[in-house]
Amino acid sequence: MLYTIGEMAKTLGLPTSTLRFYDKKGLLPFMERSSGGMRMFSDKDIECLRIVECLKQSGLSLDDIRHFIRMTTEGDSTIDERLAMFLKRKSEVEAQIEAMQKTLETIKYKCWFYETAKAAGTTSVPASMGVEQIPQEFRKAKERLTCK
Amino acid sequence: MLYTIGEMAKTLGLPTSTLRFYDKKGLLPFMERSSGGMRMFSDKDIECLRIVECLKQSGLSLDDIRHFIRMTTEGDSTIDERLAMFLKRKSEVEAQIEAMQKTLETIKYKCWFYETAKAAGTTSVPASMGVEQIPQEFRKAKERLTCK
DNA sequence: ATATAAGTTAAACTCGAGTTTAAGTCAAGA
DNA sequence: TCTTGACTTAAACTCGAGTTTAACTTATAT
């Protein structure tokens, strides 16, 4: 099955301008052209773009992604480097998830803070609470925020 | 305790240029100046910058963060809006963590893929495997990548 | 056949988030 | 006092990741 750039944009939820931009950046090595010069995308390109999306999410720049894509076109001699890259992505994403979880804890503490403030009509109520009055679950987050 | 911009930069692990930039953007409403015009940071500013960092991590732009910071200077009349903002941050960060977990699953599948390819000496071994030969844990990730 | 929709390019533009530069001021120790 | 290092500003610059524009071509439906 072949798709035009418009169909492709729709299935991936991206603007056509982004697909052209990715093409120019060398992120679509398998994409072909029709006799009239129009881009023709295949299922292979869909998978390719999903990997691009995944790598982008993982924190890689488009230049780094192009390097990976180029490796896939160079065949089995790059297996080791590709494996190494994914192992590194794995540990970085794990670290990012951990960081996001700390961020979430801080946000939850602030939700409690403002819920308490709302009930009292003033932020000075939660702000002046001693550690013992703050629910267990929020103490760590508060400590991380305030000065040690 | 008061700190110069250099000390502050060190404790927060940010360049001084970033602190000046944040100041110019209105992200440091409590920061004072010495008689000679030098920025003097207090513990309050440290906490403020940690919140900035948290909100940035959560996906807010600096302009949105400034809006929040301005609310904190406006007192109790903005409690409701501040609570609403943190509740929204909470659900967005939860969504981001979920997305990152899917990304991680995809990456783990690719790690398995390239480990298998490495053992075989060629990517065509994992690439040509039927669903039954792919370990359970990776099947979903593979499905999400390949075309439905 | 022809209008319209969808596609093409190169080049310029945008936007957020800083960083760098240049010219000058402040603070601390010898 | 003088030097040195840290600080000040405004303005220009950078960088990544697209988006927009203008002029043009291809494909489709009537």
The CATH class of the largest domain in chain A is Mainly Alpha
Largest interface: A-B, 43 and 43 residues
Structural class by SSE content of chain A: mainly alpha
Estimated helix fraction of chain A? 55-70%
CATH architectural arrangement of the largest domain in chain A: Orthogonal Bundle
Biggest sheet character of chain A: 3 strands, antiparallel
Strand content of chain A: 5-15%
Question: H/E element string of chain A?
Answer: EHHEEHHHHH
Structural account:
The structure is a homodimer of 148-residue chains. With 148 residues, chain A is mostly helical. Chain A has 2 domains: 2-92, Multidrug-efflux Transporter Regulator, Chain: A, Domain 2 (Orthogonal Bundle); 96-144. Chain A is 68% helix and 5% strand. Chain A contains 7 helices and 3 strands; from the N terminus they run E-H-H-E-E-H-H-H-H-H. Chain A has helices at residues 5-12, 16-24, 43-57, 62-73, 79-120, 124-127, 136-145; strands at residues 2-3, 32-33, 39-42. Chain A has a 3-stranded antiparallel beta sheet. In chain A, a hairpin with a 5-residue loop joins strand 2 (32-33) and strand 3. In chain A, helix 5 (79-120) crosses helix 7. Chain A is elongated. The mean pLDDT of chain A is 97. The interface between A and B is large, with 43 and 43 residues. The structure holds a DNA duplex (30 and 30 nucleotides).
